[in-house]
UniProtKB/TrEMBL annotation:
<keyword id="KW-0597">Phosphoprotein</keyword>
<dbReference type="InterPro" id="IPR036388">
    <property type="entry name" value="WH-like_DNA-bd_sf"/>
</dbReference>
<dbReference type="Pfam" id="PF00072">
    <property type="entry name" value="Response_reg"/>
</dbReference>
<dbReference type="GO" id="GO:0000156">
    <property type="term" value="F:phosphorelay response regulator activity"/>
</dbReference>
<dbReference type="GO" id="GO:0006355">
    <property type="term" value="P:regulation of DNA-templated transcription"/>
</dbReference>
<feature type="DNA-binding region" description="OmpR/PhoB-type">
    <location>
        <begin position="124"/>
        <end position="219"/>
    </location>
</feature>
<dbReference type="InterPro" id="IPR001789">
    <property type="entry name" value="Sig_transdc_resp-reg_receiver"/>
</dbReference>
<dbReference type="InterPro" id="IPR001867">
    <property type="entry name" value="OmpR/PhoB-type_DNA-bd"/>
</dbReference>
<dbReference type="InterPro" id="IPR039420">
    <property type="entry name" value="WalR-like"/>
</dbReference>
<keyword id="KW-0238">DNA-binding</keyword>
<feature type="domain" description="Response regulatory">
    <location>
        <begin position="2"/>
        <end position="116"/>
    </location>
</feature>
<dbReference type="InterPro" id="IPR011006">
    <property type="entry name" value="CheY-like_superfamily"/>
</dbReference>
<protein>
    <submittedName>
        <fullName>Transcriptional regulatory protein CutR</fullName>
    </submittedName>
</protein>
<dbReference type="GO" id="GO:0005829">
    <property type="term" value="C:cytosol"/>
</dbReference>
<feature type="domain" description="OmpR/PhoB-type">
    <location>
        <begin position="124"/>
        <end position="219"/>
    </location>
</feature>
<dbReference type="GO" id="GO:0032993">
    <property type="term" value="C:protein-DNA complex"/>
</dbReference>
<dbReference type="GO" id="GO:0000976">
    <property type="term" value="F:transcription cis-regulatory region binding"/>
</dbReference>
């Protein structure tokens, strides 16, 4: 899942990003509302974690633009405002969810996962195909009933492939969905990660290379 954290308190933004990356999410961080709008215009984010008091463009304005121009992207307002009126206003301008500071990190993760599911076509939360079972909430993977230990990046790539429901995903798409904006587009990380995934999941291989096109999950 690709997440954009729009928060001008850099220490908080980076702390959130580190935690979400440990949960196998691809996370970018921006501290300015206008810069965030530009990034959202060029990158397909599943969820935006949005502070309200931002330089460049206020969070309320940015949220309204997202609702109008990028309706598939979900918005979680993250703010210190605690009054009922403030929360109602945040939701009335189009935010999908609202979380006040300070917050418990597991709750943020659970809310983001729920919003991520809403940004995609309806599907069961647990993904199952070809003997592989992936539970995004428990972050567990099993092959034919046997637990498989994956790194956060391997888990993220497998989830993206399984969510494609047999469709072919290019290396560029995998890079966009499972890596953050600092990823080198010419990196060998995708090939290496796919190789590790195949070995961990075992034979027969369930991740296929489609020459000239990319990768797909399925035997």
């Amino acid at each position: 899942m690709r997440v954009l954290v729009v928060e001008d308190e850099s220490y908080l933004a980076e702390a959130i990003a580190r935690g979400l990356r440990r949960e196998s999410m691809a996370v970018d961080v921006i501290g300015d509302g206008l810069e965030a709008l530009e990034a959202i215009s060029t990158t397909d984010y599943d969820v935006v974690v949005l502070d309200r008091d931002l330089p460049g463009m206020h969070g309320d304005q940015l949220c309204a633009r997202l609702v109008t121009d990028f309706p598939r992207t979900r918005v979680l307002m993250l703010t210190a405002a605690r009054s009922l009126d403030e929360r109602v206003r945040g939701l009335s301008i189009g935010a999908d969810d609202y979380l006040t500071k300070p917050f418990e990190f597991p709750e943020l993760v659970a809310r983001l996962l729920a919003l991520g599911r809403r940004s995609q076509p309806a599907r069961t939360p647990v993904l199952q195909a070809n003997g592989v079972r992936l539970d995004p909430f428990r972050r567990e993977v099993a092959r034919d009933g046997q637990q498989v230990q994956l790194s956060p990046k391997e888990f993220a790539v497998l989830r993206v492939l399984m969510e494609a429901d047999g469709g072919v995903l290019s290396a560029e798409t995998l890079l966009e969905k499972a890596w953050d904006a600092n990823a080198d587009p010419f990196t060998s990380s995708i090939r290496v990660t796919i190789s590790h995934l195949r070995k961990r999941l075992g034979q027969p291989w369930v991740i296929q290379t489609v020459p000239g096109a990319g990768y797909r999950f399925g035997s």
